[in-house]
Amino acid sequence: MSFSVKSCASQLSLCELPTAVSNNRTGNLAVGVPLQTTKKSKKFVGRNYPKSIGISGTYQKTQIQDLIDVLRDSSEKGSIREAKAVHGLVLKSNFEDKDLMVLFNHVAHVYSKCSEFKEACRLFDEMPHRNVFSWTVMIVGSTEHGLFFDGFKFFCEMLNHGIFPDKFACSAIIQSCIGLDSLELGKMVHAQIVTRGFGTHIFVSTSLLNMYAKLGSMEDSYRMFNNMTEHNQVSWNAMISGCTSNGLHLEAFNLFVRMKSGACTPNMYTIVSVSKAVGKLGVVNMGKEVQNCASELGIEDNVLVGTALIDMYSKCGSLDDARSVFDTNFINCGMNTPWNAMISGYSQSGRSQESLELYVQMCQNGIKRDLYTYCSVFNAIAASKHLQFVRVVHGMVLKCGRDLMVFSVNNAVADAYSKCGFLEDVRKVFNRMEERDIVSWTTLVTAYSQSSLGEEALATFCQMTEEGFAPNQFTFSSVLVSCASLCFLEYGRQVHGLLCKAGLDTEKCVESALIDMYAKCGSITEAEKVFDKISKPDIVSWTAIISGYAQHGLVEDALQHFSRMEQSGIKANAVTLLCVLFACSHGGMVEDGLFYFQQMEESYGVVPEMEHYACIVDLLGRVGRLGDAMEFIRQMPMEPDEMVWQTLLGACRVHGNVELGKIAARKILPIRPEYSATYVLLSNIYVETGSYEDGLSLRNVMKDQGVKKDPGYSWISVKGRVHKFYSGDQQHPQKNEIYVKLEELRDKAKATGYAPDLRYLLNNMD
Question: Which pTM does this prediction carry?
Answer without folding.
Answer: 0.74
